Predict the structure.
Amino acid sequence: MKFDIERARAQTPGCTERIHFNNCGAALMPTPVIDALKTHIDLEARIGGYEAAEAADAKVQAGYPAIARMLNCKPTEVAIVENATRGWDMAFYAFDFSAGDRILTCSAEYASNYIAYLQVARKTGALIETIPDDSHGAVDVDALRDIIDERVKLITVTHVPTNGGLVNPAAEIGRVAREHGIPFLLDACQSAGQMPLDVEELNVDILSATSRKFLRGPRGMGFVYVREELIAELEPPLLDMRAATWVTPEDYRLVDDAQRFENWECNVAAKIAFGTAVNYALDWGMDAIESRIATLSGGLREALAAIPAVRLRDLGSRQCGIVSFTVAHMAPPVVVMGLQERGINLSVSRATSTQLDMHGRGLDALVRAAVHYYNTEDEVARFVAALEEVIRQK
Ligand SMILES: Cc1ncc(COP(=O)(O)O)c(C=O)c1O
């Protein structure tokens, strides 16, 4: 079926202002999401914050079944929190690591996750190990099989890294984890919203993602999915009166479901709008979104490959909508600034975000051009022409 690009753009006000290829930073919100945000803020202004939350309770709760539908899980396995990292942290820090426990991760791992590994390793003596890459730079699943033993406490990888088009073979990694009875944590921050994510197919036990990127929701929202069987085993590092009930002066009781990873106060307007964004993505269809993004990013990679000064930097045999590159003799921020001046949004990804990968490849920074389904072939062509101009004028 043909993708209704006109409707997608008509419902994306930001499209008229700029060419937005910073969807891996924060995508443009569509009209239904913007309306949901504004409507609730207006209601809060009119009748009061608590009263507005009560009046809009059905909308506040709608995010859980929406995320559950997207992931093929139960709404009670979903916690909605301030961002992907907070959700990820609440699950990761709930594991009881001790000296000699092995944490297996990947070379594309994201800074915030790796900082948490380092902290836990320093405090407990747990060991952090990187699963070797295959020849394309993705996680080598056979190598993973070879290094597993009974000391592996957690397998924790990033699905799509912040710095490029690589898609790690999450389902295969998850299958190995399952065969060995090891919990599998997947950072799906950059994959959520640009491809289907089914927790059964992926064999994941924990999955975190954010609202503002390919899901096109508001900033300051994210979620974590935790498999039902694991929830009871994980006591989050931080608790409040939403995660637990103060049952007697001396005692508290954790709630049974994934709400134990949440906290009481939250941005209600953003929570409603996030649910709207997930439903909006599902209405387009995750397969249709993935295929439209593949067409655009494929065309973009082809055009960039034809520019002699440009070097594509995407790893992996399977690639997604984040197109990463460098330009000979031009620092990535200079490239991004040149395009920004021409009304085109891109972003720089620095070594500090993906230290293992960037250090390994000798890169300090690279440029990210991340397309979404509402972008067009014409925008790709205009971007490539503008980039050529920036390179000529350097
Ligand atoms: C791969 C990856 N994981 C996690 C995050 C963190 O997401 P958040 O800022 O919502 O915590 C990002 C953000 O860029 C990311 O790219």
